[in-house]
Amino acid sequence: MCYNCGCGMPNDDMGNTDNITEETIKKAAKASGQSIEEAKKNTLELLKKQLGQKS
Description:
This protein is mainly alpha-helical. It has 2 helices and no strands. The longest helix is centred in the C-terminal third of the chain and has 15 residues, at 36-50. It is flat. The model has no long low-confidence stretch (mean pLDDT 93).
């Protein structure tokens, strides 16, 4: 999914490169000097905070 649409296909941008994909996360991880797993964990923690959930 593009991570934001909910289709469940992490490598498919659904024809729009503005959608968040696995490639987006890989690029962000590289830019921050992180592993992909670290970038995903950090993203998840921030999303939980923004949505008012506990870790």
